[in-house]
Structures are given as C-alpha cells and as structure tokens.
Specification:
- The protein contains seven helices and 18 strands.
- The chain is α+β, with helices and mostly antiparallel strands.
- The strands form four sheets. Strands 8-9-3-2-1-7-10 form a seven-stranded mixed sheet. Strands 14-13-12-11-15-18 form a six-stranded mixed sheet. It has a three-stranded antiparallel sheet with strand order 4-6-5.
- The longest helix has 16 residues, at about 230-245.
Length: about 300
C-alpha cells in the first residue's frame, strides 16, 4: 500500500524542537499495522494585538528565527492582530513570559504544535496520508487530511500487576491478545500443574520480569493498554521497580520508555505518554462517562426521568 492511499487513526502525538525547526510525530493505527508519521521543520505561531508590535520587536533581537507578519485576523474583541512565527516552539514560551511581565498577552502561545497542525486541518482522529518519503519504518513530511469515517480494528491488552503492601512487584498479567501470559516472580513449583488457557512464566528476578515484559510488548505490539488505576499504580510501580533494580521499562513502540509528566495543579498525579500506544485508565474513563446532577436532588432526577 502506498502512502497516498493510506488511511490511519491517530493514537499518539508528540513534538520536539530540532535544529531545523519543530518536529511533529504521530503514530497511526492502519489496516496494514502501526505507522509512524514525522513532519519536520514545522513553524510555530502565536498572535498578539497589533498595538503591541513595537514591544514584541524589542524582544526579537535576542530570538533568532522569530519574526512578525501582518495578518487579516482579529481577536474576539475585534482587535487586529499580527502573527509571531517561530522556528522553535519553545521560543514562543519564552516570548510569552517576557510579554506577560509587561501585561501583554501572547495569544495561543500554549497551543502545542501537534495540536495546532490537526486543528488547522479539521482533523480529529481519522486521517488520510498523502505523499511523503519513506525513512525506515516512518513516513516523513507527508500531508495529512481529515478522514473522519476511518475506524481500524485496534489491538487491546489489559495490564494488571500484583504487589506487596510495600509495592514490591510479584507478578505481571497481560490479557486480551493471543499471547495471554502471567510473569511470576520466583521458581516454578515441583510437579506438573493443571491445564491453563494462559502461559505462566516464572522469573528469578524482578529485572528478568521487566525484560520479558519489554519483549512481550515488542512481540505483540498492542495499540491500546487498559487497566484499573493502570497509570497511577500499575505503570508507576513498574517504573519504580525498574529504577530500583537497574532495569529499563520500554513498553512504547520502538522499545521507547514512558515519557512521564506530573500534573501542574494536582500533586502526585501522573501522566504517562507512551509513544505509539494509548493508555486508558478505567477509573478516569468511568469518571469521564458519568453524568452528574450536582444541583438536583435524587427525587427531582427520578421525577424528571420517569415523568
């Protein structure tokens, strides 16, 4: 299948500043398997009221690769704006902080490059990939267009671990794919066990368990990881165990690690971006799906629903 005929469903997105400009990376699920798309030398943009142009240009002398352009756009208050175009996305952050000290807002400076690229093209999840060049397993510098009707069959795995009260790892279970397995710490018991519909693999050390887990992810290559409290507990404990025993936790595609981030306003809450794989936490998914009625009593809700 050529890239001009390729339809995909966006799983993950990422950006980074490179010497030639900002790079955007998307992982897609396609009918032909996972595909990585890389867009190089992307320019980032923000906006500022035209009346503040002189103040902005004062800062640009120390920011090579940043320029302003006239635009036929206005704010919601009908104020004309100019565009601030930057070679690197982080330059916009630095400029926004400098202008904030002067009471000048740099509009949309917080919109990340991979989100802006999709927004400007009205892409939600389904995409049509056109052109580009092949670079090993990636398609580079192609064009993406919306294909909202495309829905691939996703490979889903359920992850669960067992630990002691002190969060010492005992086992890792993976279910939902053809290779159903439990990695168990310890030596196999003497005598033959009963028939099981999954593989039970004993590992002499926790480091060996994590190495087998990395191999399992590379071999089975799921698109989605699900679990109950899978980010704040299961993956966190796996990462903690890896750090303690000098192992690597590499569940992402291309054997890449989790790109851990902390919540800026919620102490102890973690985000676990994983290249090429979506993580769905059952607790967060359930919260998002619940419809609450904070200003109604249960009696009022019942009368409303039952007439």
């Amino acid at each position: 299948m050529t890239s001009t005929e390729l339809k995909g469903f966006i799983l993950t997105r990422h950006w980074r500043d490179a010497p030639a400009g900002t790079e955007i990376e998307y992982w897609l699920a396609t009918d032909a398997g996972p595909v990585k798309v890389v867009l190089t030398s992307q320019t980032s943009v923000a906006f500022v009221a035209t009346q503040h142009r002189a103040a902005v240009e004062v800062h640009l002398a120390a920011m090579p690769g940043v320029e302003v352009r006239e635009l036929e756009l206005k704010t919601f208050h009908q104020e004309p704006v100019i565009g601030v175009y930057a070679k690197h996305f982080r330059q916009l952050g630095r400029l926004a902080r400098a202008l904030q000290a002067q009471g000048i807002p740099l509009l949309e400076a917080d919109v990340r490059p991979h989100d802006r690229y999709l927004m400007e093209r009205f892409i939600t999840a389904g995409v049509l990939v056109e052109g580009g060049r092949a670079d090993r397993a990636a398609i580079v510098d192609c064009k993406l267009k919306p294909a909202p009707e495309f829905r691939p069959v996703l490979k889903v795995v359920s992850l669960d671990i067992e630990t002691s009260q002190e969060e010492k790892l005992y086992s890792i279970a993976l279910d939902g794919t053809q290779e159903r397995v439990v990695f168990m710490l310890g030596e196999p018991p003497s005598g033959a066990g009963g028939a099981m519909d999954f593989s039970l693999i004993y590992c002499p050390t926790r480091k060996a368990m994590l190495e087998k887990l990395n191999d399992w992810f590379e071999r089975n290559d799921p698109d989605v990881i699900i679990g109950w409290n899978v980010i704040q507990f299961d993956l966190r404990v796996l990462q903690k165990t890896a750090n303690e025993c000098g192992a690597q936790l590499l569940p992402g595609r291309e054997r890449r690690p989790i790109e851990w981030r902390t919540h800026p306003g919620k102490q102890g809450y973690l985000f676990a971006p994983m290249p090429g794989r979506v993580i769905i936490d059952g607790i967060d998914a359930l919260k998002a799906a619940v419809w609450s009625f904070p200003s109604f009593s249960l009696e009022t809700v019942s009368q409303t629903l039952l007439g």
